[in-house]
Give the backbone structure.
Amino acid sequence: FNPSLARSLQQFAKLFIRLTVRDRETARKLTPDYTIGCKRVLISNKWYPMFNRKNVELVTEGIREVREHSVVTADGKEREADCIILGTGFQVDPRLYMKGFTLKGSGKHSLDKDWAEGVEAYMGTLVHGYPNMFQLVGPNAGLGHNSIIFMIECQADYIVSLMNMVAARDVDYVDVTAEAQESFNEEVAEGLKDTVWTSGCTSWYQQADGKNFAVWPFSTWKYWIRTRSLRLADFRFGKVSENKQRRARKATAGA
């Protein structure tokens, strides 16, 4: 998402708000102070005329206190309330929504440790050190400019191709190499430079230090091309020893 293109679209969006919302102060409050696309873009603009109603008030002050029948904002004003709807958003950082369990890989790999400094994967699908673990909409496989369903379909085909390769080679597992994963994430980081997703605002696309772990910075066409075939040099295929298989079966039976 090119910032220059975004700023052009932004002018049309600002004009739409000014023409739709009659009160200038309300229109000002509704106008974002960041480049369009830096945060998730709403898919509908039909709600703007609501602010022209006499029984609708836009309050942007923070909430200081919730009482039995009212809400008190930071400016000390109390407003009666029959119902409060909380728009809490959603959590996309896997380190948070997966913190309730431990995921261990090969050797001494543990996902909470491997991702302690930041979330990374290969093609948003595999993580080095975790054989046969595949993800849908993993790190940097999300979108801010197209349909996520398309990405999921690409990933599903990609995973099937990997599984077929495991079967064709008569092996037990596939794992992405550390070098391939590192190279992929360097490519993504470079692609995110000078895009609206790294233009300065805070959003759920980013972790606390500002690293964008959520969005695929290139075209969906490029992702489709990349997932149409396997770069075999990026993977390690292998068999599991009989001892490890017995331990795995025993652990599964006792689970």
